[in-house]
Amino acid sequence: MNPPNSDRIQEIFHEALALPKSERCPFVAKTCAGDDDLKDEICELLKAHDSPGFLGTPVVRLDFLPVNLAGTTIDGRFRVQKQLSDTAMSQVYLAYDSRLDQSVVIKVLSRILVQDAEALQRFKKEVEALRRIQHANVVKVLDANELPDGRPYIVMSFVEGESLRTQIRTGGMNLERAASILKQMGAAVDHCHEQKIYHRDLKPENIIIRSDTDSIVLIDFGIAKVRDSLVGPTTVTGASAGTLPYMSPEQLNDKEITAASDIYSLAVIAYEMVTGVRPFNATTASQLTELQRAGIRVKPCDLRPNLPPRAQEIILRGLSFKRQPRYQSAGEFCDELAAALKNGGAPPVIQVSQRLKYLAIALGLAVISFGVYWWIKHGKVPPSPGHSFNYFLTVQEMHNGQPYKDPIKSNGEETFENGAQFQLSVSSPIPAYLYIFNERPSQANEASFTMVYPTQAINNGSASVGANQPVQSKWFTFTGPPGAENFWFVWSTSPVSELEAATSEAVKHPDGALSGQTLISVKQYLIAREAEIHATPYHYNANQSVVVRAKSDLMVKLVQFKHR
Fold it and tell me: Are residues 221 and 291 in the same domain?
């Protein structure tokens, strides 16, 4: 991006300062028509000016523009490849971390704010917020430090994908896909609130969808409100913060920020996801406040007639002008809305004729007969309703260290030959969180307990999987005396906090090894939960796959693959 002319920036900046706050951004937008870079630069400076402490940094420093760090190396390990964005507040770069052998994102505070105490504190609070949060659907902070010139920087995991903004189409998104995304958003925001962090800038641009999945990552905690902060006092009221169309009434009016404020923003996003447009179109804060107070005039079902009425009811409740009627939990709001989007369109129950009743009875008898047939043929009952995940092995026989014959697909019931190689493939019919561990006898120079999924190379270290998204392990080899390879599977509809810490440790090791207290805690958790949860595997010979089922939202299962 070519930096806007600094003289022009100062000229428009001073003209805007002479206007009331509510008129400044519209004035800048009109004056900078056709030059979005110039407009964004000045609007960012106006926001910074309204924050306490900005006046300690003279405006004359505006001509001291940031230096592009592309091509440099930070702290001897981060090789900066290119600049991703450049604003008056910060610059964001794509870099390569030679220590972790992965791409990262580095956010650096702008030079014009390096002497601004309030801006520095806000930047440090963003680091604090991200360090508190350990969730698969929230961007991970990997490091934080200062450049030689005193500018602080944050290093975060790089998420390959596109923002939710790019996925919202005219007329709205596919409802089932919207449900999957909303459910993850609710879990992520709920976790932030549990850590006493309120995002304050939830919008489609700050929700990244990983490439080729429906897995989301929440980003940009630059203006988050952090309660009980160790960095400094809690952000004071008196200066509204956020992105205008998604701000709650209390944000616009400088009232106390609570979880309900983020829930309002989620409701705006949900309205936009299912209709393709926002509920309000306002250019000033005062105008938006009046529209919010008047209520939603164009209901979601007016724009999308096939939208389930229950989904509309949930969205409108989330958009309540007063916060008390809104949902008080982001997870509850998003879970109920996701369920309504998936199931709300079911046809109404109607009275059936006597003939249809007889038909229903006959069908019931047929189902029972099939169950008896299944039991006789397979020695197992048909799968019961509930949650499930699937897996199978790809096995390659070896001879003198070379592949022998074609690879075969296996459900893992047979006993395999020593030296054979195998790869594990796992998938879930719905978006979920998956953790896989391999436990084998201790051998020299080889870890005995490793995390197979997630890894840094697979899904960037996130345990989330999309619906029917295949997860493939590395290739293993059956070795040692006759015995079994033990694999622990954990499937859940939400992140498993007891295993997220293990994930953070495992991704630091090339082989995903766990040790010490982390290993002890993980094994204790796995053993205890498997004993509590009755997850049943069903081995299918026809397609050589296995379906593991249970009626709970969490499944823990130990599976053994025997070899001789």
Answer: yes
How far from 390 is each of 425, 426, 468, CA to CA, in Å?
8, 6, 9
Q: In whole angstroms, what separates CA 50 from the centre of its chain?
A: 31
From the candidates 201, 220, 262, 335, which is the catalytic residue?
201
Question: How many structural domains does the chain have?
Answer: 4
**DSSP code of 152?**
E
Tell how many helices (H) and how many strands (E) occur in the chain: 14, 24
The confidence score (pLDDT) of residue 259 equals: 94
Cβ contacts of 209 within 8 Å, gap of 6 or more: 161, 162, 163, 164, 167, 181, 215, 216, 217
> Quick check: is 110 in a domain?
no
| Residue 299 identity | K
- For 533-560, give the DSSP string: S--EEEEETTTTEEEEEESSSEEEEEEE
Same domain, 333 and 189: yes
Supply the pLDDT for residue 14. 62
Specify the pLDDT at position 148: 87
Distance of alpha carbon 100 from alpha carbon 106, whole angstroms: 14
Q: Tell me the Cα Rg of the chain.
A: 27
Residue 368: the pLDDT is: 53
Cβ atoms of 321 and 343 within 8 Å: the answer is no
Same domain assignment for residues 25 and 173: no
The C-alpha atoms of residue 257 and residue 207 are separated, in whole angstroms, by: 21
Give the chain's residues under pLDDT 50.
1-7, 52-66, 234-239, 345-353, 372, 374-384, 444
Terminal Cα distance for the chain, rounded: 62
Verdict on whether the full-model pTM lies above 0.70: no
Active site (annotated) includes residue 335: no
Whether residue 549 lies inside any domain: the answer is yes
Same domain, 465 and 530: yes
Residue 403 lies in a domain: yes
pLDDT of amino acid 10: 57
Other beta carbons within 10 angstroms of residue 551's beta carbon come to: 13
For residue 148, report the phi and psi dihedrals to the nearest 5 degrees. Answer: -55, -25
What is the pLDDT at residue 21?
A: 75
Position 130 in a domain: no
Q: Output the pLDDT for position 230.
A: 77
pLDDT at 283 (0 to 100) = 81
